[in-house]
Amino acid sequence: MWYSAFLIKRTLEHVAMSPLIAMGYLYGCCTPFAKAYQKVLFFPFYHTGGAEAVHARVAKVWGGPDTLIIFTRKSTDNRYFTAFVQTNSTVLDYSKYTGTKWLYPVNIFFRGVLAARLAKAKPVLVFNGQCNFAYKLSPWLPKAIPQVELIHSFNSFSWIRLPYLAYYRKSICIAQVALQKHVQQYKNLGVPEELASKWTFISNGVPVPQEPTVKSAPNPLTVLWVGRNSEEKRLGVFEQLATQALHLPIQFICIGTEKPNTNNIQYIPTITQESALAKWYAKAHMLCITSSTEGFPMVVMEAAAHGCLILSTPVGDIPHRLQNEPFAYITQTIEPTSVIEEMVAQLQQWTTTSHLAPLHAQAYSFASNHFSLATFERNYTQLASEYKKN
Asked: How far apart are CA 369 and CA 142, in angstroms?
């Protein structure tokens, strides 16, 4: 089956890399960590992003003097860096060694370095938060060190991780739809049943205000788009939507992109403070998701927690969780032209509705019941307790 081909590829790569790995391992043996760590967490970035927000919350649950956090790729901003530091963990940014494709031999060398250092430190848990470097490192760690991975959606990492499944004790997914796609992928590729049984689902969580947010009358209706300007987020679709809806009393606001304002969109640079972003959610009437792919976006949970209605494409777990909720509208397709037509029609309906307050209240109530940060923290605390030192 195809899964065997991935294993053969991994074996051939290991043979080719072994001299550099061995050199790195020798260097790592001579330069161990200054102290031992119970938990070691690998993340690619600390910049703005839903995945990074989740990683920061995992670090908050597991962080402390006995935790080491390692970043492996260069971040585009410092949005969550302080949040990681505030966990009282040791934070190391290795991106200058591991995150540059022009220095790929150095990346391989550092796999050996960290393999040696972690073998010496003997942590009770190595956690991979969707980090390419950590997948490539996993075969070189002692089998006695438990490794756990987190994957946010069915994406490129769903294929990158395939040769390394055997090295992980548990695979966490944040979205049920994505989890099922991985299960089907395993069946299609002939992944052994014992590896397929490692999946577990842990939903993300966000802080929910103690009291619902009181929204102003929707005149104009304020629509937010929040996120980084990446290909899958499709900011261009949101911009086209704003153009097509010029005849409606709507204020479109894009947070996370630095551009000159237009006659239909106000652009606001990345907001790094959670409290400042919460104020925008509190002012807004609605969140718009135009993505082509997602797991279950943090921004949906954050917006709903502040009473925002949700207007979204049918991506990830959004239809699975929100399809029948009156405060949400999910388009029938992700095809841009159809998405814009459907969203304009729904915006037309919402702008002519004088009673949006009940919908805002339903969004808040749903978030309180389903997106609790306390549940998220409890699940990760319980997971870590499975790997305590004897």
From this structure: 41
